[in-house]
Amino acid sequence: MSEIKAPIVILAPGRAGDIITSEPMFRKAHLQYPDREVIFVTRKEFADIMEHAPYISKTVILKNKDEFEPYAAQFPAGTVVLRMNLPSPDGKELPHIYDEYGSTYSHLQRFQGANSLPLEDDDPVFYLADDTVLPDGLPEKYVVFHCCSNGRARQWQPEKFRALALECISRGIGVVEIGFGGVLDIDDPLYIPLCGNRTMQELAVTIKHSCALVGVDSSMSHIANSFHVPGFIVQGKIGAVPWYNFYCGMYARGENLNILRFYDSHPADMPLEPALYVFRRFLDGKPLSYLECDSFMLRSQLRYARSKWYNRLVQSIANPLKRVRDSLLFDRRPRRDK
Length: 338
Description:
By secondary structure, the chain is of the alpha/beta class. The protein is built from twelve helices and ten strands.
């Protein structure tokens, strides 16, 4: 009986966005060991993310996290095991979400670090099946909207997304909404709801042929990144991190990406007007760069904060007291002897 050759085993119980953005790590492992079988182990809902990658030999479906490590343990010594969202056997933790200077690592880099690999950047690739076709009834020109994610702290108000969608429709651009449940609820022929239980392949091909993706930080934005589709991503702080970019590749470089956010705030705290301005610039063919968008959103946040009556009241009380304090400090400053 021939000896079983040690394969590359990818243990990926989820999440979808983590799998998509970590694709360069899987591809590099295959390039390093091109003669080895690559087995992608995941749950049923994530199977079609990687099963059409040309270097994936086999996709194995497991039901819960407890089954993943025993599956990998059946292979011989020398097996390359890449783990995602699973504790490492040696207790190695994911790198911290940001370094001592506040610079955030991408999800790709964090999973590379957890698997003792060099921290590198690369563009992810989403592999479509050869027979994947666009859903029927899509307009020639459309923007995809994905307005909800699993993270409660990542949500923006539906009426604000609706205002961005109506801006598209007013210009004759279709609006295709994806997600488990639609929130736009627009009565117009240019609004096409593709909500519900769609496959990842259907969603991916729809995003690939769109003009842009508008939405929250989710697996759909990672798909847009993989196809180099312009993204308008509503973000806010996450945990203790007030300002972040967890993407790799094109979005990490700030290309074709505008992040709509207020510093150290949840998305729900961001008003519509600055986001609408940024989006209109794109529709007008004069998009802001990544850094221009960041600068504009910061200035908008300052103006918005100053416009609040209670902030103006605090300033009207505090400013005279500050002037008195500064005057006293000036009078008491050390002076050179004459």
